[in-house]
Amino acid sequence: MRGGNWVGVVGRRLRKQASYGSHSTSSPPEYPNILGPNLPDVWTSTTQSHRPQSSGNFSASGNTATIIDGKPIAEEIKFRIAGEIQRMKTAIGKSPGLAVVLVGQRRDSKTYINIKLRACEKVGIATVIAELPENCTESELLDVVSRFNEDPSVHGIFVQLPLPQHLDEEKIMTVVSPEKDVDGFHPLNMGNLAIKGRQPFFIPCAPKGCIELLLRFGVEIFGKRSVVIGRSKIVGLPIALLLQRHHSTVSTVHSFTKNPEQITSQADIVVSDVGIPNLVQGNWLKPGAVVIDMGTNLVKDPSSRHGFRVTGDVCYEEAIKVVSAITPVPGGVGPVIISMLLSNTLESAKRAFGFT
Amino acid sequence: MRGGNWVGVVGRRLRKQASYGSHSTSSPPEYPNILGPNLPDVWTSTTQSHRPQSSGNFSASGNTATIIDGKPIAEEIKFRIAGEIQRMKTAIGKSPGLAVVLVGQRRDSKTYINIKLRACEKVGIATVIAELPENCTESELLDVVSRFNEDPSVHGIFVQLPLPQHLDEEKIMTVVSPEKDVDGFHPLNMGNLAIKGRQPFFIPCAPKGCIELLLRFGVEIFGKRSVVIGRSKIVGLPIALLLQRHHSTVSTVHSFTKNPEQITSQADIVVSDVGIPNLVQGNWLKPGAVVIDMGTNLVKDPSSRHGFRVTGDVCYEEAIKVVSAITPVPGGVGPVIISMLLSNTLESAKRAFGFT
Hints:
photorespiration (chains A, B), alpha/beta, oxidoreductase (chains A, B), Rossmann fold, 4-stranded mixed β-sheet, disordered N terminus, methylenetetrahydrofolate dehydrogenase (NADP+) activity (chains A, B), 356 residues, NAD(P)-bd_dom_sf (chains A, B), globular, homodimer, 12 strands, hydrolase (chains A, B)
């Protein structure tokens, strides 16, 4: 992998042995069908056809909600990825590569990138980071992205957002090759996610993590009512599209929805990604619902060492008395999202190398 | 425009003066904002921010529902388009061109194509039709599409569906240049329709016609509950995406939805495109709702001259007693859809020629 050989870009290479150790499985394990089963819509004029209930959702049972802990799942996924990468190295002498592009010196961006780099390192994904100054030109940035597009050792390109105001984020995200768009934000990938039966190269990491958790916890999605609160292109929109591909009946609630609590209270599955602590209160939730809280909000907390704590969009204390299962924040979906980035990068490398 | 210069393809040219006559307006008239206003989602933790109601929807008033007649609107749009094309011809000596691709001899496909060709002819859009035999190879078809992609006199390419089974529809639709994809089905255009703030080159004709009718009849979409029944890539999916861009709260009902009537009965706006006559009965509808019936179904009718008649998905006789406005079938959205194809072709030509 090349890196750091152009003006204004500092490349550094991290290529280490997977710290998860070797994985003895020679064939890839079964992945859950994240895109959902491809079923024709068969309507009848008098009744709707329903698949028989193979398994119910969690039942409402007072305050015995299941806590959907993402950490062990994330660890298990990373372990599996590390094993797959080890198998790839052994078989063809190659590993996946992820290129990260950072413009400017935002501290939070650097923190996020470091978390991703460490995760890559642990599973054996080679990484290269291109750092550009805050005042770089659009053409300099596009040049960096184009080089990564051409580089056969790069299988995923990750442009850290937000970009400085003077850069056209939409344009830059569209220049990332759809085949290396491990974020899944390229409109071609989003379109192929939206259109039933089509296969995007990548599913965005947050929605993929959300569905992964639902599937692993045996939550039935098929035929269930889902409400997605928030409609960002990163989370809300692709989650709604993905839930629909799993044949859920999806409603999207947003800031201009007049009665969000009333609509949300009809849902079997609630996914929230809004950025407002405690927006979703207990009375918004149907007894027995499953809640995936994608919000990550910092709230003041004098009792905490740093003076604040991280919380989601859902009032956890109230929700836990009503719902059948819920993701805590932190520790719910968050850890799984990064493992989805690793998974997308591995998938991309497998495709590039024709490795199965 | 070239046509008919390759084996197995019969090209014919139709290039006539617009029969709508000249249009004296020199600047383009204002188009309604089909993509919806681009507003940031601003949430607050305790209340949802709502735009003040500028105008209410139609009010429920017994059986005095407004009949949304698409024919005069379609005529008005075509008149405007003809005027625009006349203005273009006068100013730069150019006109828009639409290429139609037909594989095989399906009678219904030929009928649809003829309707489109006649509509093009009337407004002054030049057309070329490539007819390929039923047993043509994929590469022959792809070659035809590629030639149209390269042809600067072609601004829109329309591949008539369905294609014979042996041809990969998905692949062929993806080969159509997104900049000439007047159908709006290319995943890149669908992705850009889905992502808030982005501009697809084209909005699919049926959804565009649906929104055009809602806007022209002054139906408030902003903040209203919408239910889209059906989720095809041609109608249901893009309509849901478009209604959401207009800040409606959208639920999509499909064949695996357990209680479609209950969900539909909450909607201020109902759009149906399922293909089941009388699926949507009176008790599915909220009093005062606005109904856009996109279904086109043939039902037996011995009293009719041909032994059948065309009907929509909605039980019109029941609905009209409940709703505030409804599109009849035939004569509602249908006529507007074709004018949207003309509008997309004109838009494309304007873009290509830099003509404003």
